[in-house]
Amino acid sequence: MSTNSLITLAGYSKEKLLYLIEMAREFELHPNRKILEGRVVATLFFEPSTRTRLSFETAANRLGARVIGFADPKITSGTKGEILKDTIMMVSNYADVIVMRHYLEGAALYAGEVSPVPIMNAGDGANQHPSQTMLDLYTIHQSQGTLENLNIYLVGDLKYGRTVHSLLAAMRHFDPCFHFIAPDELAMPEPYKKYCDENGIRYIEHKDFNEETIAGADILYMTRVQKERFSDLMEYERVKDAYLLKKDMLCKARPNMKILHPLPRVNEIEYSIDDTQYAYYFQQARNGLYARQALICDTLGITLDEIKNDKTIIR
Ligand code: CP
Description:
The chain is of the alpha/beta class. The chain has helices at about 15-30, 50-60, 85-90, 105-115, 130-145, 160-170, 190-200, 235-240, 280-300, 305-310, and strands at about 40-45, 65-70, 95-100, 120-125, 150-155, 175-180, 200-205, 220, 260.
């Protein structure tokens, strides 16, 4: 078992999160280096992905590492009955770190327990998505100049949305006030509300979604209703278009307000919003590269000092 796996950010201290943000900033300044030359990063994606996979792979490639992985889990020996443990044991023979996305909650924790090399959780079911949270923290800090005392509105699928579950835990150090906006079927689950109560995280629940409700937001974090998580597709049909952010709903928005979305979006944000000062989701996705460069280096034991003194920068 490797001790350096990234399964969740829930246990990370405030200092550690700020340290990783500083590291990501170094990579935003100089993303092209050879600091990982000679290393191999494996990407095992058992669920679809565009951003997470490509930004992890770009992060590794831009730092000089080589990347291995499969295009589709259907073409792996998992289809012949190989269990996850055996797959992890095999890939750990080839790679220095394994980035894994899996449809089962807890799969990353399990992989981390059996793997001799670090596991990086790229999303496990509806549970956690720590690298997304790292890029979200980086983006919030970049757009607001601070992480402290912000009004963060989480909108849409708060039941299955692993990105919002991860964000709650990571933000606990920064005295946020969360606003949960979701239909009953997709409300924030009780265990997460209990977590907020136990950790002194303020939250307010709303059913309405209009210009008045969101007027106090610093961050408006939209999420997709995830069809793939529903066992009852009739229920999905009932709620899928529950909350669409329309341009005219921004008329009372704070000047500093930014709209984030982990993407992909389906029917949550009108396309006309893309050109407004509030849209920040494409920059957010870009930040995934820098945040994941920082996380890969940290997982491999490379320090901020080493990165600041790095002589392998390619200009
Ligand atoms: N945000 C996110 O996880 O996107 P992908 O599913 O495309 O990786």
